[in-house]
Specification:
mainly alpha; two-stranded antiparallel sheet; globular
Amino acid sequence: MSTTTPGSAAGTISLDRSTPAYGGFNRTLLRIELMRILRNKRTMFFTVVLPVIFFFVFRANSFNSGSGNASAWLMVSLALYGAFVANASTSAGVAVERAQGWSRQLRLTPLRGPAYILTKVLVSSAVAVIPLVVVYGLGLAFGSRAPAGDLVLAFVVSWLGSMLMALFGLAVGFLLPSENTMQVMGMAMTLLAFGGGVFIPQPVFSHAFDLFARWTPMYGVTAMAHAGLAGWSGAWMWVLNIVGWAAVLGGSAVWLFRRDTGRV
């Protein structure tokens, strides 16, 4: 839709109010968002340094991990945990943007909710590559051994699957005030990681705990990331878990974004 208004010199000024392509999604916005996150030293510490510390603290433990050694299982788990935290904490930063009035400013632009959500998820997933690379590099340097194909599969699944937590972080960031968001996120990520089998080998789950874990959002991704080491039994259940939580968290994030910006 295009309208004109009187102009002093040129006669008329054309105001194009049509919706931009892809709902406002563009590379410039992606670059700005990514650089802003990479400058956040606190986020980098919790997403990169903590998984590395945990790896060296716990790597002496031993258990049957299938085709790889125990150190390889731990490496996959803690790299995945770092990716989960990177996605969740990066996207949860929308709570600060809300407090600063940035989301209200976005309401005045043609940017659509799905385009905004996609931008946040892609930026979060780019940050998540960092802990994956660092933990895998150190793990392989300090004795983690497994077939190369299994490790490549684990890396790719961890990177793509951890985007679920970007949707979770967005939902929490739009739902809670900025002063409460990170406290809630820290506790939630720890509980979800234990419940989803990130810190506990799924082959040693009790039957009751396994039934509970299947309903948690990290379960499917965690099981699939370890599938090369532990086997593919129950893969259909992992896929259902991932697809179901992607729909729930993605839908919640878009709805909460629209509710928040609709208050302008």
